[in-house]
Amino acid sequence: MARTSRPTRSTRSAMKQNPNDDDCDEEEKQVAVAKAKAVVVKKTYNEEEASDVDESKDDTDIAAAAYVLDGVQYTTYMDFVAAKRKRNEDRMRALGFMDASTKFTTTKRNAAASSSANATKRGIKRTKTTDTPARPTEIRKSSRLSGSKTQLISLDYYVNDWNRDSTTIVREEGEGGDDSGKTEEEVMEKFFKDRVNDGSDLTLEQAIELNDAKWNRDNSVAQAQALMEEIKHSENSGTKSRSTSQSKKTSSPTSVISAVTDDSTIAAGFAWKINGLSIDKEEWVAKVTPDRIYYVTTHPSESKLVCCAGDKQGYVGLWDVDIVSTNDNNHGVSLFRPHSRPISCLEWLNHDSMITASYDGSVRRLNVEKGIFEEIFATYDSDSTYLEDLGYGLDQGYRYWTQYVMTDPRSAGTTNPCLFVSTSVGDVFHVDLRSSRKGMITFHESVSDKKINTVSLHPNGNTLATAGNDGVVRLFDIRRFGDNRARSKSKASPKPLCQQVAGLSVSSAFFSPSGKSLLTTSFANRLDLTEDAHLKSDGTTVKPSTSIRHNNQTGRWLTTFQAKWHPTLEIFCSGSMDKPRCMEVFDSRGKMIRAITGESLSSVMSRTCFHPSSTNLVIVGGNSSGRVVAVRYCKHWIIDYRNLRNMELIYAVDFVRLHNIIVFRLRSFDCVRRFHQFFRTDGLNHPDLKTTACCTPYH
DNA sequence: TGAGAGATTAAACGT
DNA sequence: ACGTTTCCATCTCTCA
Fold first, then answer.
1. pTM for this predicted structure
2. Dist CA A513 CA A510 (whole Å)
3. Cα radius of gyration (chain A)
């Protein structure tokens, strides 16, 4: 099994022969462990099924009755499936979803569904979850979603609910009224309140009101307004005040990590900065959003660090990292909910306006000056209310959403940006909001039949890279794109300039700032770097020039990894599943510069990004519970132990200006020798460092 | 060939 | 300490 065998297999049969892409014993062991685990899990499910389906049955009956639904046995699988479908459709009708043509899918185990069904029959109900929405008894009048889609979304909720496993069943107390004393109107209001889709602008106050109450404080609005003021003035006044507070904060970090760098790939001065990155301050971690983070970014200001994160429920959190305040509970975080679905993109156009985009189809712009989230674009379905809107008719229904939005760098500086948008059904389109009041769709093409995860425009302004669930990265010349909506879906997709096959779903593909390299993250467990792919135009399949093995199996509860470039430098960062938890920094040749670890970095950082500054190096990471870490350069701890490979610093103390004690784990005796050699020469010459060292062998 | 079920993953939050 | 919840991700396998 050669390491170089990149998963370019295009057939599924080939995948079957070597499904794990393994190349070492340890992984084989892991697979064996995983399989053993799987057996245990399966056994548990069977036991649950046995206890759930019917108490009167004994083991032999269960074994014989392969297909049981609501206590009824079915002899064939098809009968069973048909019965289940009919059962769920009946329930939908009972709930008022009368449209017979409604299609839906069940996604969970039958056993759980049947237990829930039995629960319903016996007049008992499930334990109430914290934010269970109420049953909608009527369709909204004023909504960007037309009636059919509203029904389908509600339906989605119910189907999931029916099929939910691990349910706890409790006896219903009292009469079958509403839960916890709420009136039906109140429950309904709660259900609709979290949808922000009427096409209007949102003030800060409104966006805060849309938060779940438990995230808001009395001073939330005031705090948000104060933050906006700070951001507004950050470009002018921040530099002086911050440099003092910064030096205070970083005067005594608790650890430094030596790095393995190579001057041939990175400018020497820059490598030092990466080595100086530290992440041991508790203050540099904060809960910024309530739910899983889908996107992180930073405010572009050089003088003030504001981290921004968007989560799965449409929350956007702005975190002022260096806030000096002891009495507020939010720790410098202001939370808004400008969207109702996962945030797909957060991008600062300049220092006082940020684009927020979401799966809900809308794109907003946070106007810091005015303090509002303006809606600048949205997709609508066939609801004639929005006939006049630019996005009318784009939304194709239940399985349609806008997956990724990128602002067009060619429109930088104009008041209204242009947007590249990708969708869950494989479309890519470009919205030009500059020209008229309404704007226009420059092109709209279908480039895949699966979801497009990212789009990236090459600095040449013409080449667009798309990456999606079909496992192929395609490069297109957007000058050949046109508005293709009117034509039939069967029409052939535009021909790509070239393509790169990953085999499995590609989470992201981004061009480097210079345009030299294309960086790809895929479920085939690779970070691929392809050089000069944009120069091809003959439709060939290109191969990556560098392929880094990287565990991208994030599973269901973690946001997928998307390795991301620094906005101006040729380095990129990525989250990692490795333990201890870390964020990784690579250079443009795919060589790992740092795996940043630290006390405060204790979870998987699914999404990471760099601050745009090239002088103040900052890396921001967001995890799957809404926490954000900011990794920064500490000037007191510049240690450039180049050539000290295989060393890992485990402890360091700074007795201010006296001396430092540094303990390294060394992985071999050869390392110890080299360490001493090196330490006697370069280490003590470092101007910022007076050092005594103590070495322990690693075992 | 398509649809569906099951496995996988990590971390917060209850008891 | 342990069990529960997450469920607009994705892959693999099975069934008809």
1. 0.65
2. 9
3. 28
